[in-house]
């Protein structure tokens, strides 16, 4: 089994690339952001709770996020692994994920960082906001806050896996297929 964390700041292209990798390597693509947006669309209690955080660019509390993730992972069948997109976003989530995957006897194979500069991601997110319908993609102050949250809370997840010798960096600049090619070779090596 290949269980990969696709890691990177908001707007680094995780969603697009995770989808491609999922298809190529027969992985289940789990995006916690997409799961929350689904709950919001269907106006569920979880969606209402998540929205209040997402609208500010803050992280949804761990207990809610980890439980939702756990249930999804446990239902995975007929795949050769999982690609995690947007999870884990802090050290507590990384520890919970390791414990879960350990219990399932299917540990994390590695984390791949999509490396993109801050100027580039703000540009990309604003552009995506023109068509994605995401409120958190349209307001520059919310975008800046998401980047700040990434820097302070999420970036340490890289060192957490790096210390285990499980983290690699891939250049996230270039055309979509070019980046997909780089990621595919990184996945093959994990
Ligand atoms: P994303 O689609 O990954 O950019 O996530 C959009 C928003 O959903 C984030 O800004 C958070 O508010 C929330 N979110 C997604 N994944 C997580 C997570 N693992 N932990 C906490 N909040 C999350």
Q: What's the quick description here?
A:
This protein is of the alpha/beta class and 190 residues long.
Number of helices: 9
Helix proportion of residues, in percent? 55-70%
Biggest beta sheet attributes: 5 strands, parallel
- Mean pLDDT score, rounded? 96
Strand percent estimate: 5-15%
Q: What gap, in angstroms, lies between the N and C termini?
A: 11 Å
CATH domain class? Alpha Beta
Instruction: Give the total of domains.
Output: 1
Structural class: alpha/beta
- What are the segments in which pLDDT stays under 50 over at least 5 consecutive residues? none
Specify the CATH architecture: 3-Layer(aba) Sandwich
Q: Write the CATH fold name.
A: Rossmann fold
Q: Based on Cα principal axes, name the global outline.
A: globular
Element order: H for helix, E for strand: EHEHHHEHEHHHEH
Identify the bound ligands: adenosine monophosphate
CATH superfamily: P-loop containing nucleotide triphosphate hydrolases
What labels describe this entry?
14% strand, alpha/beta, 9 helices, Rossmann fold, binds adenosine monophosphate, 190 residues
Can you walk me through this structure?
- The chain is 57% helix and 14% strand.
- By secondary structure, it is of the alpha/beta class.
- The protein has a single domain, classed as P-loop containing nucleotide triphosphate hydrolases (Rossmann fold).
- It has a five-stranded parallel beta sheet, sandwiched between helices.
- α1 (14-25) crosses α9 (176-189).
- The longest helix has 15 residues, at 118-132.
């Amino acid at each position: 089994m290949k269980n990969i964390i696709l890691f990177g700041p908001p707007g680094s292209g995780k969603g697009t690339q995770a989808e491609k990798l999922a298809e190529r390597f027969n992985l289940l693509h789990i995006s916690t952001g997409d799961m929350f947006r689904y709950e919001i669309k269907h106006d569920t209690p979880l969606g209402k709770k998540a929205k209040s955080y997402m609208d500010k660019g803050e992280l949804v509390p761990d207990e809610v996020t980890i439980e939702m993730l756990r249930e999804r992972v446990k239902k995975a069948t007929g795949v050769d692994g999982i690609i995690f997109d947007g999870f884990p976003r802090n050290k507590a989530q990384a520890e919970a994920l390791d414990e879960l995957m350990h219990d399932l006897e299917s540990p994390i194979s590695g984390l791949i960082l999509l490396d993109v500069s801050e100027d580039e991601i703000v540009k990309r997110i604003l552009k995506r906001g023109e068509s994605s319908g995401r409120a958190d993609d349209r307001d520059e102050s919310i975008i800046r806050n998401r980047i700040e949250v990434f820097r302070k809370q999420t970036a340490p997840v890289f060192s957490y896996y790096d210390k285990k010798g499980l983290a690699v960096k891939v250049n996230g600049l270039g055309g979509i297929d070019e980046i997909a090619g780089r990621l595919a070779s990184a996945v093959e090596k994990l």
